[in-house]
Model the fold of this input.
Amino acid sequence: MINIIKLPEQQTTVSKIEIPNFSSSEALKNISQQLTTKYLLLIDSSRNIKMGQWTIERMVQAAQNSQAAMIYSDYLEEKEGQTIQHPLIDYQEGSLRDDFEFGPLLLISTKSFKDAVAKMNEDFKYAAWYHVRLLMSEKGFFIRLPEFLYTAKKTDERSSGQKQFDYVNPRNKEVQIEMEQACSLHLKRIKALVNPPFKEIDFNSERFDTEATVIIPVRNRVKTIEDAVLSVLSQETTYNFNLIVIDNHSSDGTSEILQNLAKTDKRIIHHQPKRTDLGIGGCWNEGIFHEKCGKFAIQLDSDDLYINNQVIDTIIKTFYKEKCAMLIGSYEMVNFELSSLPPGLISHKEWTPHNGPNNALRINGLGAPRAFYSPLIRKIRFPNVSYGEDYAVALAISRSYKIGRIFHPLYLCRRWNENTDAKLSIEKINAHNLYKDRLRTIELYARKKQGE
Done:
């Protein structure tokens, strides 16, 4: 149940409207017709909100001073008698995720809301609020108050790793289709929509002695690195391929395992960077600029392993068939013992050839494993970070070049306690989301300029 509280400018009275949902066009139009006050307060009543000292007054004050379209704030979260801080992040132009967290209490300018609803011609069942939020952001701005203004009950007990793939759940397909439509309409309105045809790739522009190179960045993965390496060496092809393992100064025995493996197979290149300031992206740059990197650079994480001995060949054949600059596959989620974990197959079927590059700005990931035409990825390069580095280059490539897709599983992705995203703190989740929003903001500027 969502509560809409109409706030007069001088808060002597507060009236309340209870509605069953806030996601349909019909519901938002009905609400818009009933609003006569300057502000409305949107409250998720399922969270048992407890107002802090002068909560509403503080938000109204900020709205009046700034003339913002929406005000939201950090809050306290209550679970099993304990109260912890739940900070949020600032909204920016690239905050296009439909699951951007504003918290369960929002103060909204009635004028901004009514103007946006009046422009809504689509009959959405699920994406109406997301659509209206984007419309509001085009004419106004949203302000986060870094103040813990209220307390809310914690309702979603899942870890970050469990929540991560909600948007690829087949049960949410109808919702995701509407969300994509709303996002694409927004991109079109702000002149940031990209459309085929894309630039063509000439795979003969440079000569390579090796057709394909698998690149594995690794640091302290003594339990899994040998499995990953052996899954690469098991691949069957009619052309040359090799493996470059970027050993980022491991200290747990990983280096020794790689040294021994390299002695048994000349296809293994065990490379230890001179630099000590490299993240995963920086390690990728070491690999793609290595003199023995092949025409196509293929990703594999040090926790994971290819699903069979035909993965490299499948990827290379798809490059030539699709004539794409980058290729993204699919994978199966498994535990450390390689038993299946929900949601199972991660295929990102929401990607479509005509609109995938636009929908990429709405979601937080594009899938894996990733592979690149080496001359192009050398021009773009990876940001030297350990989160979002792959998303950054995928956005840049999809702006101008075709990205090919393989929708059947190519590798097994291990989800275990030592994964970096298995169970993240709210601070780390916020840092990740803020960074990807920044990447999207930069990409929006580039796409707008390209469309001029």
In short: The two ends are 44 Å apart (CA to CA).
